[in-house]
Amino acid sequence: MRRLWEIFLVSFKLGCTSFGGPTAHLGYFQNEYVQKRKWLSDNDYSQLVALSQFLPGPASSQVGMGVGLLRGGLFGSIVSFLGFTLPSVLLLMAFAYFSTQTEMEMGWIHGLKLVAVAIVAQAIFDMSKKLIPSIRHFIIALLALAVVLLWIHPLAQVTAIIVASFIGYQFFKKTIEKDDSKETVVPISKTTGVCFLVLFAILLIGLPVTSPLIQNEWFTMIEKFYLSGALVFGGGHVVLPLLETQFVQSGLMSSSDFLAGYGMTQAVPGPLFTFASYIGMVIAGVPGAIIATVAIFLPAFLLIVGAMPFWLALNRFAGLRGAMAGTNAAVVGILAAAFIHPIVTQTIQNGLDIVIAAVFLWCLMRWKIQPYLLVLAGICVGIVCY
Fold first, then answer.
1. How far apart are CA 254 and CA 242, in angstroms?
2. pTM score, two decimals?
3. pLDDT of residue 215
4. Beta carbons within 10 angstroms of residue 24's beta carbon
5. What residues of the chain score a pLDDT lower than 70?
6. CA quadruple 288, 302, 175, 167: dihedral sign
7. How far apart are CA 373 and CA 197, in angstroms?
8. pLDDT per residue over 42-98, tens digit each?
9. Residues 128 and 141: beta-carbon distance below 8 Å
10. What are the transmembrane regions (predicted)?
């Protein structure tokens, strides 16, 4: 119990102070868990990061779950997740409550939307440098962008990812070097890992099949958030198009509320997936926020726990590494499509919007301004200019 409490307090501190997105979170984790507390070695940590990048889901949250698993078993993984996630969940729930209970100035909301334009643009740029190293990768990204923009359907993103994984399997499996580092001892059995992976697959297939039959609003919410969490590759920003499809295009919430919440998510520490807490709070209050948070993070938990006993074996399969390379390229195209619509098309209204968004982007890329500071600036600019 003492160890679990220690895991919670350390992860909670990280949840309160980890600004800057998934990549920055991994830096905070490395400093706290490896250098300062020595809970695991540099090699173990690098393998854990590699595994989280391989799996769908929020990479930094999965690394935190993995550290908790290595430190305190299954319960350690759960309390690590709770500590890291709780601060941003509470902040976004509070924002959603006050934004729906009070009359907000439209200029303030518009300022947050312009911040979202800059932040997503930077995410696309940073991801493309890492995930599109060749013309073949670029073609996959371009095809994924075209599919998502031209085929307005909830299955468009999933189809693009599946097709890209097959292309990557065929063309990239001989170009990805494998990692021959020493296998890490995981405190759960492979049998337990299989059970978690099977449960992940059952929910992934079963929820969409049974949801239309049950026709319950809470069950439908679980299905939408679970699928969004299960199909995200490439980081927290990529959840944006999936959630937009599930909740804006379906009419469950307005595009204005959606983009305002996404902009505010950049101002709080912790994982970007807690954007789901805001959406759940807007749609169904506190119960909705709790259900949304659990449902969107559940696939990440099931996958990281299920895969950790097998992570070295996964790394040995060149075909899987190639499929992931193709998937990552498609992710860039999907995020670019979400950037074009709805972010740009529903935010940029005139030349002033273009100038302000460009200045925000310059601040992020040239001066490395922290996102939460940019959000404050966006609120002020929105109030003054609109």
1. 15
2. 0.74
3. 85
4. 15
5. 19-21, 23-24, 43, 46, 50, 100-106, 154, 174-184, 233-237, 312-316
6. negative
7. 40
8. 767 867 876 787 788 888 899 999 999 999 999 999 999 999 999 999 999 999 988
9. yes
10. 74-96, 108-126, 138-171, 191-213, 225-243, 278-311, 323-341
Which residues, in sequence order, are CB contacts of 212 under 8 Å at separation 6+? none
Residue 253 is given by DSSP the state S
How far is C-alpha 251 from the geometric centre of its chain's CA atoms?
22
* Structure-token match 């160890």, residue found: 3
SS3 content of the chain, % helix, strand, coil (to 5): 80, 0, 20
Reading the block at residue 190, the tokens are: 């492979």
Structural tokens at position 227: 């699928």
DSSP helix/strand/coil, 247 = helix
What is the separation, in whole angstroms, between the first and last Cα of the chain?
A: 53
Q: Phi then psi for 347, rounded to 5 degrees?
A: -120, -50
d(CA 51, CA 181): 13
Six-digit token pair at 312?
């070295």
Angle subtended by helix axes 318-338 and 135-150, to nearest 10: 50
pLDDT at 252: 85
* Residue range 284-318, pLDDT digits in tens: 999 999 999 999 999 999 999 999 988 756 656 77
Q: Which two tokens stand for residue 310?
A: 């097998």
User: What's the rounded Cα separation, in Å, for the pair 66 and 72?
Assistant: 10
Radius of gyration of the chain (CA): 20
What DSSP letter does each residue of 158-181 carry, written as one string? Answer: HHHHHHHHHHHHHHSTTTSPPP-P
Give every CB contact of residue 217 below 8 A, 6+ residues apart in sequence: 284
Give the 3-state DSSP-derived string for 24-78, with helices as H, strands as E and coil as C. HHHHHHHHHHHHHCCCCCHHHHHHHHHHHHHCCCCHHHHHHHHHHHHHHHHHHHH
